[in-house]
């Protein structure tokens, strides 16, 4: 079973993502504290990460950069999730950039298509 790590400081959004993605057949680990992301990656071994941009205690863009620059995690696809639609336009596609962007509120089909696209490429 393919594994996803969903990181968001909003517990309701995490629960919704988990339910939707489990219905699509994925194993989902959720995390509300961005500072623990590398512990979660080490224990869950995700095939993909859904990462909120504006976490209460961390910046998802910086966490994404750290993930992408580490040898042991750089191949994990990261989809940044944000309510700010302008963030996608400002994202740099340099080293440390996410693999994709999903705007909140998200459509279930958009979520599924993005996840399936990156899972197929992995």
Question: Can you walk through the features of this model?
Answer:
- It is a single chain.
- The protein has 122 residues and is an alpha/beta fold.
- The protein has one domain (3-115): Response regulator (Rossmann fold, 3-Layer(aba) Sandwich).
- 40% of the residues lie in helices and 23% in strands.
- It has helices at 11-23, 37-44, 60-69, 87-90, 108-121; strands spanning 3-7, 27-31, 48-52, 54-55, 58-59, 78-82, 100-103.
- The longest helix has 14 residues, at 108-121.
- It is globular and about 30 Å long.
CATH superfamily: Response regulator
Structural class of the helix and strand makeup?
A: alpha/beta
Mean pLDDT across residues: 90
CA radius of gyration: 13 Å
The poorly predicted ranges are: none
The figure for the number of domains is: 1
Main sheet specs: 5 strands, parallel
In short:
The protein has 122 residues and is α/β, with parallel strands linked by helices. Helices cover 40% and strands 23% of the residues.
């Amino acid at each position: 079973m393919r594994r996803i790590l969903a990181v968001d400081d909003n517990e309701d959004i995490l629960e919704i993502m988990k339910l939707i993605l489990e219905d699509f057949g994925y194993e989902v680990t959720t995390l509300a504290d961005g500072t623990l992301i590398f512990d979660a990656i080490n224990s869950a071994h995700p095939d993909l990460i859904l990462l909120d941009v504006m976490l209460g205690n961390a910046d998802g863009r910086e966490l994404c950069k750290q993930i992408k620059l580490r040898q042991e995690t750089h191949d994990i696809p990261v989809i940044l999730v944000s309510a700010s639609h302008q963030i996608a336009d400002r994202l740099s596609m340099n080293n440390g950039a996410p693999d994709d962007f999903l705007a909140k509120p998200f459509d279930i089909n958009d979520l599924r298509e993005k996840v399936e696209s990156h899972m197929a490429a992995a």
